[in-house]
Amino acid sequence: MIPSSLLTALRSARRLVVFTGAGVSAESGIPTFRDALTGLWQRFDPAALATPEAFRRDPALVWGWYEWRRMKVLQAQPNPAHHAIAELARHVAEFTLITQNVDDLHERAGSDAVIHLHGSLQQPRCFACARSSTTPLAVPNEPEDGRRVEPPRCTHCGGRLRPGVVWFGESLPATALNAAFDAARQCDLLISVGTSGVVYPAAEVPHLAWTSGAVVVHINPQAAARQAEREFVLRGPAGEELPELLRQAFGRALGARG
Ligand code: BV8
Ligand code: ZN
Asked: Which of 14, 86, 174, 251 could form a disulfide with 110 if both were Cys (CB 3.0 to 4.6 A apart)?
């Protein structure tokens, strides 16, 4: 049962922020970062693969992993959580969506101006000259042995292309991070969906909202520690909890018209 104080806070929020992690895409069949290594990839630690050092050492291994993930995203559909977030934006004066995810499922569910703190799979760039690649990437066929795919070459300098994501040890895009911190500082309510909250500085966002006086809601099947007042935990999958929150707060079944 969603506490009535949370429903009241959501209905009266003027500035709403939604902050998402891999859990929001889990019900679309996209493995979360912790279990992004199913099957063939089990021998690798994601944090070890998502680094510039790993790419320097074995570009085909890292590019192959990201092509496998990009293919999973192409095959996936936004789930009710993505649609509920897009619908939520229509019920508040100011809405900001911040994601740690590199997939485009929020955009495909109709959200716009999504702040991607860790970049996106859709914008590879040259590892040598940093130019973003103009040639659209071919539809990946799952790397047959799921292990190695040679990255394409930059048409400008011949360097290898790399995924347009932020790796461990790399700085986040300053504009995105500043916009996210500003939105967190100014919001009345922040909903954090499907994140383990272990990676910084992205994990600062919900804390910043809370210390700035906002109400903070965590949506996650795993129990999350409650900090103090003004903090709520909705324990369950995002694909169920978010549509239910939307229905109870605004009486709108997802996708209802009129
Ligand atoms: C930085 C893009 C400055 C790539 C990602 C030593 C050396 C260098 C750096 C560090 C260091 N020690 C610490 C650091 C800082 C480091 C860091 O925080 N490390 C952690 C591991 C301690 N951070 C960085 O390096 C950042 N840069 O600090 O720059 C700098 C520069 C030089 C030197 C030092 C510092 C850059 C971090 C960005 C890394 N890139 N992603 C890619 O995708 O491949 S991070 C990646 O993991 C995600 O983007 C996300 O941010 C993070 C965690 O993933 P989550 O989204 O939370 O997903 P996760 O799988 O963890 O959890 C899923 C959750 O969903 C779970 O809670 C689960 O219960 C829940 N769930 C499951 N099903 C559902 C669900 N919830 C709802 N519904 C469901 N159905
Ligand atoms: Zn180049």
From this structure: 86
